[in-house]
Amino acid sequence: MKPVYMLITDWCPHCKRAKEWMKELVEENPEYAKVEIEIIDEEKTPEKIKEHNFNYYYVPTYYVEGDKVHEGVPTKEIIKSVYEKALGR
């Protein structure tokens, strides 16, 4: 399984919606619960952003095993694809 990082801010409405979809997707497909997603708030822990050398502008942004797979306004389908990539599909 590949590591996943989700970059967010607390005030971002798209980040909040993405988290809701993530919960829905895990309920719909329990296998997704195996995927470990590290959520990094860019304002609270900027050192983690620098540590991983993330290159992005918009949140939420998803990285799977170091590769940026989505940046900006997500859809539930996009988030599902993040889980699928993390599972190696």
TrEMBL record:
Superkingdom of source: Bacteria
SUPFAM superfamilies referenced in this protein's UniProt entry, alphabetically: Thioredoxin-like
InterPro entries: Thioredoxin-like_fold (IPR012336), Thioredoxin-like_sf (IPR036249)
Domain Thioredoxin-like fold residue range list: 9-82
Protein name, entry field: Glutaredoxin family protein
Source organism: Filifactor villosus
